Amino acid sequence: MENAVELIKLTKSFKKEKVLKGITHCFEKGKIHGIMGFNGSGKTVMFKCICGLLQPDKGRIRIGDKILGKDIDFPESLGMIIENPGFLPYLSGYTNLKRLADLRKIIGKDEILDSMCRVGLDTFSKKKVGQYSLGMRERLGIAQAIMENPELIILDEPFNGLDKKGAEDVCHLFYDLRENGKTILLAAHNMQEIEWLCDTICEMDAGMLSRIK
Fold first, then answer.
1. Average pLDDT by consecutive 10-residue portion of the chain (213 residues)?
2. Per-residue b/e over 8-43, b at no fewer than 16 CB within 10 Å?
3. What's this model's pTM, rounded to 2 decimal places?
4. Could you tell me the residue ranges of all domains in the chain?
5. 205, 67, 65, 172 alpha-carbon torsion, rounded to 10°
6. What is 1-77+183-213's CATH number?
């Protein structure tokens, strides 16, 4: 068994509030891992630590065979949605993704359009993101997370705003990504959203992570 992410006694506090309380856990490579938990349970903080956006107070994070903050500052092949994706409302979905892709210059137009197709967005639409529904924004966020073909994908509430058809489309996309060896960590409030989708399920409660499936 090869681990994509390993957390070792991960601890994080803000002032006097301990948000993560010594979490030790392994997320196996090539699987879909669900994390249940209410707002404030610590899910988003844990994700931000794994992405290199927050520095833990104690403990280690291993991404593959490298220690975050020592060997690398950020995971080398990562796509993510954490909290609300920040898009420019006066630009189209494609133009927003193009601007993000231009930062690293590892993909071009074809990969951007393919990612939009895979989440069910109209690639020919000139509609500005400010006119998007909540579900369309969520689809665009997922397109952004997958467009550079990352090995590790971290999604905070990816079903937010999606109707039943949209949620089914996204689930099929996640299955395809897993079949191609990608590792997905996703957080959700609703057990029904993830119990039939995920290979493993953990519950985050008051800064503690425990596996329930």
1. 94 94 97 92 95 96 96 96 88 96 94 96 92 94 97 94 88 96 91 86 95 91
2. bebbbeeeeeebbeebebbbebbbbbbbbbeeebbb
3. 0.94
4. 1-77+183-213
5. 40
6. 3.40.50.300
